Structure formats: C-alpha cells, structure tokens
Amino acid sequence: MNLSSIQQTGLEGIQRGLQGIEKSASEIVKAGVTDGASGSTSFIEPIVELKLYERSIEASAKVVKVADEVLGTLLDTMA
Q1: CB neighbour list of residue 62: distance below 8 Å, 6 or more residues apart
Q2: Long-range Cβ contact pairs of 30-37 (< 8 A, separation 24 or more)
Q3: What number of other Cβ atoms are within 10 A of residue 61's Cβ?
Q4: Domain extents for the chain?
Q5: Structural contact between residues 54 and 21, judged by C-beta atoms closer than 8 angstroms
Q6: Lowest-confidence pick of 7-11, 19-23, 73-77
Q7: What is the pLDDT of residues 11-51, one digit of tens each?
Q8: How far is 64 from 31, CA to CA, in rounded Å?
C-alpha cells in the first residue's frame, strides 16, 4: 500500500463519517419533531451514532495527518 492510497482511505473515512453525521442529525431532528410531545427516547441511538461518526472522522484525520508527515519526512530525507 502506498502513501497516496493511505491518504485516500483516510479521506474516504472522513467523507463517510460526515455522511453518517448528516444522517444521524436528520434522525435526531425527526425524532424531536415526531416524538417531542410523547417524551419518547428514539433519539438516543442517533446521538450515540453521532459520537461514533465523530470518532471515526477523528481517526481518519489522524491517518491522513500521519501519511502526510511520512511523506514530508521522505521528501526531507531525499532532498
């Protein structure tokens, strides 16, 4: 696996995480609108998923950062 594919994997992870956050946020809003009067807790699972997507984005960003640092180190070594 080369550095560009590692960076691409990290970027794809960030994109998937952002899509998941949008989905979870939408589910939270829907739960608030449909269940707000009844006091239902159907928004708890999307909130937990929201946190998981946040962690996923953080991990993917670290992958991109490390790949960038490795590339920088390789370039410095070759110069």
Answers
A1: 10
A2: none
A3: 15
A4: 10-78
A5: yes
A6: 73-77
A7: 999 999 999 999 999 998 888 776 555 556 678 899 999 99
A8: 34
Is the distance from CB of 10 to CB of 64 less than 8 angstroms? yes
Q: In angstroms, rounded to a whole number, what is the distance separating the alpha carbons of residues 56 and 27?
A: 19
Angle between helices 44-78 and 3-35 (to 10 degrees): 160
Given a contact cutoff of 8 angstroms between Cβ atoms, the answer to whether 48 and 24 are in contact is: no
The residues, ordered by sequence, that sit 6+ positions from 53 with a Cβ below 8 Å of its Cβ are 17, 18, 20, 21, 24
Q: Which helix (H) or strand (E) holds 42?
A: none
Residue 69, Cβ neighbours under 10 Å: how many? 10
Chain position carrying tokens 């829907």: 30
The predicted structure's pLDDT at residue 37: 56
Please report where in the chains the tokens 């269940």 appear, as a residue.
35
